[in-house]
Amino acid sequence: MRNRGKRYQALIKTYNPKQEYSIQEAIEIVKNNATAKFDESFEVSMKLGVDPRKADQMVRGTVSLPHGTGKNVRVLVLCKSPKDKEALDAGADYAGLEDYVEKIKSGWADVDVVVATPDVMGEVGKLGRILGPRGLMPNPKVGTVTFDIAKTVKELKAGKIEYRVDKTGNIHAAIGKCSFAQDKLEDNAMTFLTSIVKAKPLTAKGKYIKSIFVSSTMGASVKINDVILLQKIQ
């Protein structure tokens, strides 16, 4: 049996880890148990009834969280002039092309999101082996390949996040900080979960949402009653 630390053992005494809670109750439990010495992220983990090996059952998309993530999102825009100035004026941390392509080839990837304009994808595509495994490869399906640079950068800085089901059918995302007010975390959570529900593939069979858990970075997870949640979404 796996040994749990004293802090974990203390946390699970504050609630019933085998019980399913409403989203409001679960958020309150997680917030109260976020006792680390830093502002922990509030995280959502879901198990979906899909087979990601099949292209028509891939669940992937973006969603703009109404209250942001509480994190400073570092954005790199790969583009030619004058789009680089547009990107920087909109709040991008880095913008340009040749210099950053060379830096990435040398192993640099100190960013959270990479955006590219369509006209440079020929060069950006060569970075696929480096950016792909790190989840940084620009993709038109999630809006990171676009000429509308200013809008995209502002949305990313304001709290637009990308989600993607992994090979085992799980989705995990940080949707805020535990220091956020209860109602703000509820808004972010419902916005995120509604997006996942609406992204259900037409070919998915059986139960789509198998389980939902919320937790803080260093905290124990709390299970959400998905039946009650789906009733609220629908």
Task: Name the descriptors.
234 residues; alpha/beta; Ribulose 1,5 Bisphosphate Carboxylase/Oxygenase; Rossmann fold; 2 domains; five-stranded mixed β-sheet; three-stranded parallel β-sheet; 9 helices; 10 strands; 32% helix; 21% strand; globular
Describe the structure.
With 234 residues, the chain is α/β, with parallel strands linked by helices. The protein has 2 domains: 16-68 and 160-233, Ribosomal protein L1/L10, rRNA-binding domain (Ribulose 1,5 Bisphosphate Carboxylase/Oxygenase); 75-156, Ribosomal protein L1/L10, domain II (Rossmann fold, 3-Layer(aba) Sandwich). It is 32% helix and 21% strand. It has 9 helices and 10 strands. It has helices at residues 6-11, 23-33, 83-90, 98-105, 121-124, 128-131, 149-158, 182-198, 226-233; strands at 20-21, 41-48, 60-64, 75-78, 94-96, 113-116, 160-164, 170-177, 209-216, 222-224. The strands form 3 sheets. Strands 1-10-9-2-8 form a 5-stranded mixed β-sheet, with helices on one face. The chain has a 3-stranded parallel β-sheet with strand order 5-4-6, with helices on both faces. A hairpin with a 5-residue loop joins strand 9 and strand 10. The longest helix has 17 residues, at 182-198. The termini are far apart. The model has no long low-confidence stretch (mean pLDDT 93).
